[in-house]
Amino acid sequence: MMTNLHCWRALALVVATVAAVVAATVTGAEGVWEGPSVTIQPCTTKRAAYQQWTRGPKNEIVLKSNGSCLDVQGYSTADQATVYTFSPCHPDDPDPSHQNEAWSINANGTITELMSGKCLDRSQYGTSPGTQVWLYHCTGVYNQNWIYNKTDLTIRANDSGLCLDAGSPTPRTCDVEPGKSLPFCNTALSYDDRIRDLISRINDSDLPGLLVNSATGVEHLNLPAYQWWSEALHGVGHSPGVHFGGDVPAATSFPQVIHTGATFNKTLYRKIGTVISTEARAMNNVQRAGNTFWAPNINIIRDPRWGRGQETPGEDPFATGEYAANFVSGFQDGEDMNYIKASSCCKHFFDYNLENWHGVDRHHYNAIATDQDIADTYLPSFEACVRYGRASGLMCSYNAVNGVPSCANGDIMTVMARESWGFDGYITSDCGAVADVLNSHKFTRNTSETIRAVLEAGMDTDCGSFVQQYLAKAMQEGVVPRELVNTALHRLFMVQFRLGLFDPVSKQPYTNYSVARVNTPANQQLALEAAQQGIVLLKNTNARLPLKTGLHVALIGPNADATTVMQGNYQGTAPFLISPVRGFKNYSAAVTYAKGCDVACKDTSGFDAAVAAAKEADAVVVVVGLDQGQESEGHDRTSITLPGHQEDLVAQVAAAAKSPIVVFVMTGGAVDLSTIKANKNVAGILWCGYPGQSGGQAMADVVFGAVSPGGRLPYTIYPGSYVDACSMLDNGMRPNKTSGNPGRTYRFYTGKPVYEYGTGLSYTSFSYHIHYLNTMDTSLATVQTYVQDAKQNHKFIRYDAPEFTRVEVNVTNVGRVAGADVVQVFVEPKTPAELGAPIKTLIGFERVFLNPGQWTIVQFSVNAHDLTFVDASGKRVARAGEWLVHIGHDSRLTFPVHVN
Asked: Are the CB atoms for 812 and 859 separated by under 8 Å?
């Protein structure tokens, strides 16, 4: 035993020198050594000391190299309890609650811990190297099946074939030989030179495993496996590269992106990106997360039925681009500009906005888009992401556009993104999208042609197994040359070099980030502020809101006690979830909760209890809306009215209440609120998206006046009849009399909305007046010259264009309470709709917070780009005439600018 203890101590000292160490050596209560969390890793003889297991006399599973036993940390029997190794083994511990080192390897493939009866489980159904192994109740699902090989003594995951591994993280390639002495580890050389040297040393046989998200590594170079797929949409999220548990049980869960988009706060976007990547890097340092994250989602909400609209900032291309640029720069930039803190990937490139509608799914959808719509709606947010945000990743989407699958579209990925915009990162496919090129879109004839098509188009890595399965064959046939593969590898390695993975950790501050940076009080406060700022007040008859504190409040509705619903999708494990019921209890003398019905609201048997609660209360708040059963990835809605009988619930409760009620709408996509808006017994309507971990507290803060609402709608709320006039398969943005399309988004919709884009009320009032206005008429030739110059020289026209008008707006809080205002600027052409010009277009916004009587100056400019629009050929053009500049979504200030 002393020999084993000394070996373990020596191993611990080695582990401690590695940057990304997990629970290296922890002195337990008995003065013994504990090993790292157990994971699955590629099976290799170099890691045999961590991957060979024997059986002990008391049903122990023993690591052959040092005699330590497979154990559950803290003697826990809970789901997600950390599995690790412990020495010395203690199967005969007299305390029955400590006898958790006995395991049964069962004929059905499961391995169960005998004290709890629970199964050895791969977290989040992970199949990639580094996936954490934990204890979980037995489900019969594939991630609990194992194969014990009595010949080589490995325990393998039966789906991925990876081995149960008790070792420390694999050392960095450049910390050990042979890499340490090779040119690709020489920091005096340029990244390009180092990468070329590295690629030259990789054998053809190693290539298939390197161009997929679960990259296998190169054994003879000690190049470790790498997982490209981690998620961070609104907080570090569940994904193959992320493993919550142990030292990182949770991460800050910010509001869903549609809610954050409603804040119209660019500073907040950047702060959220910064916090998420800091938490991500800290988690990476203990092998709980990757370094490359597939966020943000910056597709435009062209249709309210889209199930993933919740993941985006809204319907406007400019506002979405501002979100992308600020989130990405906050995410990637940090204290050391020599490296990116974490890699951000903007998705889904491009024109992706349908999941599954009337039998047409995203894998088969061919979006027919005009050059005009592509140029002024579907591409601008990605251009901002690349040019302004400097994103290091893009994801090509499942769908085809005009017959060409996105992942095989070289005009978009190479000509547009790389050559015109200057994109210098990697491009991944969405998961399974490479296979879709062949099998769903029938764009290619065979597997080899498919791989060549996507690599030639500019894609670098396949989220899936298609390339890994068929690349060797394609190369042997001569269809895919090594040079094409090398180009993709170069771009992939460039991102890893920029992350510092091949440089000494002593030179990098990010490798020192500890888990103490995860879920800090400051991060929790930022999540609360984001939730507060995104709440939109739509109706407030007779100043019903805010409510007085100390009232008896009836909180009613399917989302009145929501918890996980408030996270939306692509969520991580939150440290806590404050439901509306819990939040309201901080302000009310009494809270009576009555669900009424679930979100689907087909069963109305709970209505009587809801009505009874309403009759007894001083004030009534009904929380209606959607959840992931109504809108989600893979699922679009067919209607935009509230599900089931939710409107009836509101009507019955409103009729029974002592005084007009308040309705909260918790939803990602838009729902028709016309009936509720018209109900005279409904005095207040608030929209809250999916407000995140502190959503219930934020909702209560606004209802009771601790915070004045300052959010603005990030999309148009249409009447329910909109979906009857417009097919989801009609990808056009402009009105079309032939198809009946009334136009999409505030820029082109010709009908009367229930609520306009940018709408939002406050508990206070703000006055606007022009403080300074410098307008100079400009010639048509000047604008046209700049447009041509921008095109020829690949300039970012929106941000590089010369300024023609500068306006300074004095914004004063003339009300009685402190509050935030969002100052929005729109331009309107003299003849909207001529040649397809938008009705109006957002060109700027700023959020300001003012105390009563306080004022500030907000500056905006109108440049050459703002006085142009995209014509039917997809070219940006200028026209002579008058343009109107509107300050505020309600155009409270307007002035003209002339192009002569």
From this structure: no
Q: Number of helices (H) and strands (E), helices first, in the chain?
A: 23, 40
Count of structural domains within the chain: 4
Rg (CA), the chain: 29
Contacts within 8 Å (CB) and 24+ apart, 187-195: 187/503, 187/504, 191/494, 191/497, 191/498, 192/490, 192/494, 194/497, 194/502, 195/489, 195/490, 195/493, 195/494, 195/497
Which of 17, 56, 50, 19 lies closest to 36 in space, CA to CA? 50
E strand or H helix that includes residue 5: helix 2-16
Which structural domain, as residue segments, surrounds residue 135? 2-165
Query: Which two tokens mark 131?
Result: 């996936």
- Contacts with 515 (C-beta within 8 Å, 6 or more apart), sequence order: 247, 248, 282, 283, 285, 286, 288
**Domain containing 580 — which CATH number?**
3.40.50.1700
Q: Report the mean per-residue pLDDT for the chain.
A: 92
Query: In what helix (H) or strand (E) does residue 648 lie, and over which residues does it extend?
Result: helix 646-656
Average pLDDT over residues 828-840: 87
Do 361 and 505 lie in one domain? The reply is: yes
Q: What is the pLDDT of residues 417-458, one digit of tens each?
A: 999 999 999 999 999 999 999 999 999 999 999 999 999 999
Residue 191: inside a domain: yes
**pLDDT at position 870, please?**
93
Q: Report yes or no on 755 lying in a domain.
A: no
Give mean pLDDT, residues 100-116.
Answer: 94
**Tens of pLDDT along 565-596?**
999 999 999 999 999 999 999 999 899 999 99
Give the pairing type, strands 803-813 and 766-775.
Answer: antiparallel
Q: Where are the beta strands (DSSP E) in 715-867?
A: 766-775, 803-813, 819-829, 841-850, 855-863
DSSP 637: -
The more confident residue out of 168 and 210 is 210
Do the Cβ atoms of 305 and 744 come closer than 8 Å? no
> What pLDDT score was predicted for residue 19?
31
Sign (positive or negative) of CA dihedral 345, 346, 351, 354: positive
Query: Residue 883: CB partners within 8 Å, gap ≥ 6?
Result: 827, 828, 829, 830, 862, 866, 867, 896, 897, 898, 899
> Is the Cβ–Cβ distance between 580 and 697 less than 8 Å?
no
**Confidence grade of residue 21 (pLDDT, cut at 50, 70, 90):** very low
534 and 677 belong to one structural domain: yes
Decide if 761 is inside a domain: no
Give tens-digit pLDDT for 302-339: 999 999 999 999 999 999 999 999 999 999 999 999 99
Q: Give the containing element (helix H, strand E) for 467.
A: helix 466-476
In the chain, what percentage of residues exceed pLDDT 90?
A: 81
What secondary structure does DSSP assign to 776-793, as a single string? --B-HHHHHHHHHHHHHT
Q: What positions carry a catalytic annotation? A: 430
Contact between residue 127 and residue 140 where contact means Cβ atoms under 8 Å apart: no
Residues in the chain, total: 900
The residue type at 650: V
